[in-house]
Amino acid sequence: MDQFKKQPRLPKFAIPKRYDIRLKPDLSACKFAGTVSIDLDIVAGTRFIVLNAADLSINPGSVCFSPRNSSKVFEASEVELVEEDEILVLDFAETLPLGLGVLAIGFEGVLNDRMKGFYRSTYEHNGEKKNMAVTQFEPADARRCFPCWDEPACKATFKITLDVPSELVALSNMPVVEEKVNGPLKTVSYQESPIMSTYLVAVVVGLFDYVEDHTSDGIKVQVYCQVGKTTQGKFALNVAVRTLELYKEYFAVPYALPKLDMIAIPDFAAGAMENYGLVTYRETALLYDEQHSAAANKQRVATVVAHELAHQWFGNLVTMEWWTHLWLNEGFATWVSYLATDYLFPEWKIWTQFLDESTDGLRLDGLAESHPIEVEINHAGEIDEIFDAISYRKGASVIRMLQSYLGAECFQRSLASYIKKHACSNAKTEDLWAALEEGSGEPVNKLMNTWTKQKGYPVVSVKVKDQKLEFEQSQFLSSGCHGDGQWIVPVTFCCGSYDKKKSFLLQTKSETHDVKEFFSDSNKSGIAHSWIKLNVDQTGFYRVKYDEELAARVRYAIENKYLTATDRFGILDDSFALCMARQLPLTSLLTLMGAYREELEYTVLSNLISVMQQVNSSDRAGFESLLRVYRETDLSQEKTRILGSLASCPDQGIVLEVLNFVLSPEVRSQDAVFGLAVSKEGREVAWTWFKDNWDLISKTYGSGFLITRFVSAIVSPFASFEKVKE
């Protein structure tokens, strides 16, 4: 059996085709029992079957394999669950016949409180605390609910049956085909699913209300939430119905399932999860209260719903071959969610909000410790390390850059052919580049490899000389150090007007472009009386540095309101970053800020304010009144807003109180990280508190990605070599 241990992937001698899963959760004892029958194709001579399982107790007497064309039943002579590798090794003592057969396994498990696998979440109903049972399987936790081939390329169909208390709602990926009530329990059976990966299987059991609607082609859409909160589900329902119809046109393929359920879960580690046909959400990402939620919450609900529904095509119908391609799955869904939201709510000007995504990506990727967005994943245990802002935000930004360079129509056409070609199957990043290259005739693969396989990004410097523009690229590092990266940069620029736009690929270190044709004969003085803006609408993932003459022209364009809000934001953000990296003098940043005297656009103003290093302060009375609102409100969004403000005051005593409060039962584990935004004065307090409470924190958050947010929130604000050593 040792040959199967410490291996990154499962052996390939058995291929799963269909799972028949039966689960019986016990919500009061917080455990579950189950059986699974897996239709397998044995494709190589072996006496072993190796699949994934973790945190389960297997009933050895239940394990058997029945070949389809034989009455003989093979019983396992040895059953070993290797917890370290999360594999179940079954030894049948004799070679199994090639071809189709059924593997049966009985098992039991615990409904854990770690928000992964098959877990429990708590809620209140009529003043009584109750448990619900929920699944969260991405990236590699289906194995904590039932033994399976828990790799995205091992696609199969799933037939699910649940035995649950008869008064509860029980949901899965597919519609119910039969419900049999037998006293206090009922057996609920669901339609068999289309072919899909294990990480997309989902089950939710609890007490819920719902609102429902239909798309024009008859797909039933329901939003489930806690009893009494259905009015808060209506906005997301409306967004979902309209988004499904938009994506059907955009991807040129209809939604593949007969229904779509979306459900708000009180305890939920991520923002949301795109399970096929049953999308799970944090309450803050699905529920919107017309009376009390902020405008930002409305936008958040719209973009998250659009993100998860994009996955129903890009991720669920066409699935990444392995976790190395996770960035593409998430980066694409993030980008297209803005496209959809902009289509549904053009008045929001959501692309200016997208700048928050790209500037966050630029900030992180400007660090010497960054990583490429495409990281080779060897073992499933490494996946949580790359679920970060770089995979999501830089990923989304480079896709936007590519779409902008190739043109919207060409990009959409090529994408539709990619989805058609790989539907119900798996694909790699290179498969998408190949489709886009074929559709556009551009060197997409070569271009994109420079952005996905190396970390960092360039600053493109531009200066004017004899009616020519000289462009030069070098790696941008926020430390001001020299980097030796080089990219194929899709450069866009306009001169004096957005109508006069030009684009080219900067493939070398430097290049010169003649810009005479941009200036009419009447404007004999040429470039001096016009302005030039590089990286039009900030669609490129790079910074821009202008020479003094061009910088003066840009200030003139800002003062005279010739530039879009997006471009005004980008110029300020680039100048600030270059100034912090000691590539521009502080005086040039201050002069530039003077050009924003009459700025009215929210996104630009908020960036301007953050650049001005505003310090937030508070006192005991403010702290106590915020705490009172936290305890009184039933709105998750209000609670997270307050948590984010509590520790921002300079009083170190209050900071410590807040940190202890976030680990108390009053704060759900998933929300604790919001309370770690401490003031400058509170950093040392937070660091000491973190070390003192490490055992409790690491026990609560285990190996999931929330632990990385804890570490990052506490450690990232430090900026000294002494602290690096520590």
From TrEMBL:
The record marks 392 as: Transition state stabilizer. This is Aminopeptidase. One of its GO terms (molecular function) is aminopeptidase activity. Binds 1 zinc ion per subunit. Zn(2+) binds at residues 307, 311, 330. It comes from Theobroma cacao (Cacao). It is an enzyme of class 3 (hydrolase). It is found in: Microsome membrane. InterPro entries: Aminopeptidase_N-like_N (IPR045357), Aminopeptidase_N-like_N_sf (IPR042097), ERAP1-like_C_dom (IPR024571), M1_APN-typ (IPR034016), Peptidase_M1 (IPR001930), Peptidase_M1_aminopeptidases (IPR050344), Peptidase_M1_dom (IPR014782), Peptidase_M4/M1_CTD_sf (IPR027268). The keyword Hydrolase applies. Its EC number is 3.4.11.-. Residues 235-451 form the Peptidase M1 membrane alanine aminopeptidase domain. Its cofactor is Zn(2+).
